[in-house]
Amino acid sequence: MSASYSASWRRGNPRLLLLLLCTIWSTTGLLVQAKVHYHKWDISYKFKSPDCYKKLAVTINGQTPGPTINAQQGDTIVVRVKNSLLTENVAIHWHGIRQIGTPWFDGTEGVTQCPIVAGDTFVYRFVVDRAGTYLYHAHYGMQRSAGLYGLIRVAVPDGVVEPFAYDYDRSIILNDWWHNSAYEQATGLASIPFVWVGEPQSLLINGRGKFNCSLAGPTAVCNATNPECSPYVLTVVPGKTYRLRIASITSLSALNFEIEGHNMTVVEADGHYVKPFVIKNLNIYSGETYSVLFTADRDPSRNYWLAVNVISRKPETPTGTAVLNYYPNHPRKSPPTSPPVGPLWNDTAYRFNQSYAIRSHPDHVHPPPLTSDRMIILLNTQNRVDGYTRWSLNNVSFNMPHTPYLIALKENLRHVFDQRPAPETYDYRNYDIYSVPKNHNATTGTSIYRLDFNSTVDVILQNANMIDPNKSETHPWHLHGHDFWVLGYGPGKFDPEVQPKEYNLVDPIMKNTVSLHSYGWTAIRFRADNPGAWAFHCHIESHFFMGMGIVFEEGVDRVGELPTSIMGCGDSKSLRRP
Fold this sequence. Notes:
Blueprint: H1 3-11, H2 14-28, E1 36-48, E2 55-60, E3 69-72, E4 76-83, E5 92-95, E6 121-127, E7 132-138, E8 149-155, E9 168-177, H3 182-189, E10 202-205, E11 233-236, E12 241-248, E13 254-259, E14 264-269, E15 272-279, E16 281-284, E17 289-295, E18 304-311, E19 320-326, H4 348-357, E20 374-385, E21 388-393, E22 396-398, H5 405-410, E23 443-445, E24 449-451, E25 456-462, E26 475-479, E27 484-491, E28 510-511, E29 513-516, E30 520-527, E31 532-538, H6 541-545, E32 549-554
Parallel strand pairs: 1-4, 3-8, 9-12, 11-19, 20-25, 22-23, 24-32
Antiparallel strand pairs: 1-2, 4-6, 5-7, 7-8, 9-10, 12-17, 13-16, 13-18, 14-15, 14-17, 18-19, 20-21, 25-30, 26-29, 26-31, 27-28, 27-30, 31-32
Pfam families: Cu-oxidase, Cu-oxidase_2, Cu-oxidase_3
Subunit structure: Dimer.
Subcellular location: Secreted
C-alpha cells in the first residue's frame, strides 16, 4: 500500500484497522506491506558511444539504457521526471503496466497527457499490479530511438511460487541504433520526396554494440577501444540454471536471439506464464518481453556468444553480440567461434510456427470470453496522403490532436477531434492483399473507437502488400491499458465467417504486444474494462509516426478527476490550475 495510505491507517479507528488486518490475513494467509519506490530522473542529451560511434543520445541521469525499475507486485512506483532537454518536450510510457485507476499516468503524449515541456518537472505515480517483465520508453516524437528506454522487473508477492525453478535471475534489453538523429529521421519521414530512415547501423545488447569504425565518415568520432562499446558480459556458473528476461525496444527491427550452443525454454511472455517449450533461438518483436530458462551445461573451458540478428527484413545490419562468460574464464576472453547468424530472415513459416507455440501455462490459464460483442477488422496498408507517404488502417492515417483524448473526453471538449466513428472494417471480400493497392490515396483522421464499458472486443489485424510490389512487412502491435488474448494467427486473408471457428479458446496466451506477420492476420480479444483512453498502435517507431495507430475509449465517465499536471497543451491550457 502507498505511504499515504499507511499513514491513514495509523491515524484511523483501531477497530477498523483490526478488521482490515483480519480480512487480509484470512484471504491471503499472510500480511504483505506494499512498498513505495521513489525515483528521481533527469532527462538530458549526452554524447554517447554505445556502438563506438559518438553521437547525441537522450539519457536518464546521464545513462542509456536508463535505470532498471525493480519492484514487487502491488508496489507503487513514483518517478519524478525533470525535462532538461532544453528545446524538446518529453513523455514516458510504462509499457505493459495497465494503469488501473491511473489512466492519466500511461505516459502517451496526445492520448493521456500533454508533454512535459523543456525545463518542467512531472511526477508519475502508479501501481505495478502484475508480476512480470516490462519496459518503459519515450512516447513523444521519435525519442525512443534516441535512447530513452529501460526495463521494469516486477517480482511475485512473498510466498508465491512461480511454475518454474532457477538459480539466478538476469535481464537483457535489445535495441537497434542509428547514427542519424531522431530529428533527421522524423524530418525525412515527413518530407516530399520521402526519405526512409534506412536500416540501423548497429544492434545493441544492454546498450552495447560494435560498429565498424572504418566505415565512419572522415568527420565522425568512432573509437573501437571506447569502454562504452565493449561487449556486454553475462557471467554464469557451470551447472546453474538461469532465468533470462529478454526485452526488445527496437524502433524498426524484428530480432532473433540465440545463446550459442544452448537450448532455451520459454516460460513467460509479457508478464504471463507460458506452457514451456524448448527453442534454439527466439523471435522477438519490438515491445515484447520474454523469460527463458537455460542451464550452463556446456564445455566450461570456453565462453560463448549471445547473438541477435535481424529477421523479417533483408538484413543490412551486422549481428549484435555479447559474451556468455563461463566462470572462471576471463570475461573478455572471446569465444573461439563465429557468432550465430540465426534463421533465414525471410522464413515466414518459421516465425508463424513459433507464434503458434506460445500458449498459456496449464496452471495459469485465464479463459477468454467464448464470444465477443464487437469485431473490428483493421487493414494495414501503406498509402499516400497529399503526396506524403503514410501508414493507414482501413484507409485512414492517424493524426494526433493537440488536446489529449483523455482530457477532451473527460472535459467534453468535443470540437478538438473528429466525432465521426472510425471505420470498423474494409472490403475484405474484394480486396487483394497480395497486390499493390489500386488506389494509393488515403485520408488522415482523428476519430476514435468508442467501446461499451465491460464489453468484449475482437480486433483483427490484416496485413497486405505495400506500395512497392511483393513487399509486406511485419508489424508488432501494442495495446495500452490492457492485456489481450491472442486467439489466432494465419497466412493470407482473414474471413470472419471461417477463421473464428478456428480460434484457440482453450489456452490462449495473454499479451500486450503481438506480431502481425507478412501477408497474414492476427486475431486478439480483450475486455474493455479499464476506464480511459488507450492507444493501440504499431510499435515500429517510424510506422506510428506515419499514422499506424488508433485510440480506444471506454468508460471515461468512470474516470476520476484528472490531475491538472497532465494539462497545458491545446484546449486544455485554460483547465490547468497553478
